[in-house]
Amino acid sequence: MTDYTWIVPLPVVIPLSAAGLALALYRRPNVQRLVTVVALALVLVASVALLVLADDGPLVVDVGGWAAPVGIDLVADRLSALMLTISSAVTLCVLLYSLAQGNEDDEESAPVSIYHPTYLVLTAGVANAFLSGDLFNLYVGFEILLAASYVLITLGGTGERIRAGTIYIVVALLSSVLFLVAIAMIYAATGTVNLAQLAIRLPEIDPGVSLVLQVLLLLAFAIKAAVFPLSAWLPDSYPTAPAPVTAVFAGLLTKVGVYAIIRTQTLLFPDGRLDDALMWAALATMVIGILGAVAQDDIKRLLSFTLVSHIGFMVFGIALATDLGYTAAIYYVAHHITVQTALFLVVGLVERAGGSTSLTKLGGLAKLTPVLAILFFVPAMNLGGIPPLSGFLGKIGLIEAGVQMGTPLAYVLVVGSVLTSLLTLYALVKAWNKAFWQTPEEPRPPVRLPFGMVAPTAALVAVGLLLTVAAGPLYAYTERAAVSLTERTPYVDAVLPDGERGQGVSDDVAEDEQ
Amino acid sequence: MIDMSPNIVLVVTIGVLFATGVYLLLERSLSRVLIGVILIGNGANLLFLVAGGAAGRPPIVGDEPEGQMSDPLPQAMVLTAIVITLGMTAFLLALAYRSWQLHRHDEVQDDVEDRRIAQLAAVDERAVTDLDTEVAAGSLDEEAAEARDETDQGAPRRVVRP
Prior knowledge:
The structure holds two protein chains of two kinds. By secondary structure, chain A is mainly alpha-helical. Chain A has helices at residues 10-24, 29-53, 78-104, 115-131, 135-153, 159-190, 195-201, 207-225, 233-237, 243-267, 275-295, 299-320, 323-354, 365-368, 370-384, 390-405, 408-437, 451-469, 471-487, 489-495, 507-513; strands at residues 59-62, 73-76.
């Protein structure tokens, strides 16, 4: 069998190199755009290749040829590969959208030359976080994507963006410090930061210490994933950024946090001592998030609150800690990335056509741009969980897993998730009625929406529909991913074939010790 | 076997750094928040040094006996963390300067839209209004420029509507 492990680092290496190239070419915007599009297309191809290859077992690269616990390793298993594929498809669509926006608008609002390199760095950071097989490298991945996101959220430096950016950055810095403290404590307790080796060593340490470490890691990741009560920063900061930036943030950044929770909960802390606490957090996230959405007038803020609310669904699946729960949670992550990003892109178009994002001021868009009405309607119904769309499939999977669990708390969560779905539907239908059907205050001039912006949005909506059509194979894939996550051995064995070292040059050191 | 009992001076220093850092993080002024972030970051870095065990000989294979070396891995991680903190500090400084350029102060402001919704809830008003209800206020940028929080003692301020 041919060795394909060389593909594993590509999703990190290609965007980082392209970012350098794009930065050097800042005087030639057209070449810069070409570099960015080609790089992200290549990342998509590499991710799809990994998705297919990882189904036969995790692919492991010991970076620089240093063996695993000493050196850093990159691991592409089913979960990582699936996350990578969805995220690279989404980043490519959003990039095409922002290119068209740049072409259409005047120079002032067009993305400045720093936009493309930063965007590439962001995708590299996301890919690094998904692929990392080492806790400290995961931290570095987080920092790469966060640093890029700081630049993107304050793009242009207007008063409102500086205000929102400040809150976002300070909260993100705090969660990074918490993560760093957790890593230091874990190193003090176990003497390693390699995830596979931690999976072997953590069960051996004192259960009380291990619980503290778990709480610290969960706190750090829950801030990033916006789990209530650590979610207040999100609806405050996301809506002010440019539409494509908000879209990619909403789709990806919180999901990286969710991914980190899934990875550490399954691999490092499989005994599930915090599952009940996670259940309550999931319930509060779902219900309080959606009540926030119901109260909003600004459609971007409304969507930000639904984003928080639906993180609760994923945490619900994780807290169940069964194969069925993880299967549904992973499928839900894939569904939610595409749908939430699509909705934010549509809202960018709504703002363009209606001249506002306030539901009070918008109106009559269904008559003005019927295409936009369809583009909003499909992902909105998908998010609300109307059958047969993918949102329905993900939710029914979670409910099935909850009922199978059968505990009173699980039933409370099942009821909570149904209630949240209904309220989501209510909030989105209200937004639909106000924006598309209500009589506008003053008639808007007819607008022509640029094809370059509509096409990527439509493509993303189509990807959301594809998740429904291909739900059978995809659900089977996430089920295999979930089973190998709860087994834990495929991951550990792939990284440390003999239980001690990975493949690399530090073999002689290992021999010395014996 | 390396002695793993932590250095008490370092542990106390870490405690002081975290306590002062958290105190400063609770301030409104971005410059103070920044100093708080730096202090907490340095506390975390010291924590790494403690995590690496007692100090020892330089970890260079061949020069020193292997049993007496200090652990090089936490040092490598601290270096990475220091570089990251440096970058973030520079960015926050730029942010504080930009805030001063725009508003002549660097205070972290409240979310205006959030306050508006809260005010509506306080007077039992609907968030979404129709043609026949009152007209919404000006743009967020306009309101953000006017909202400054320490001067009005935290009470919700009525923005004058055009």
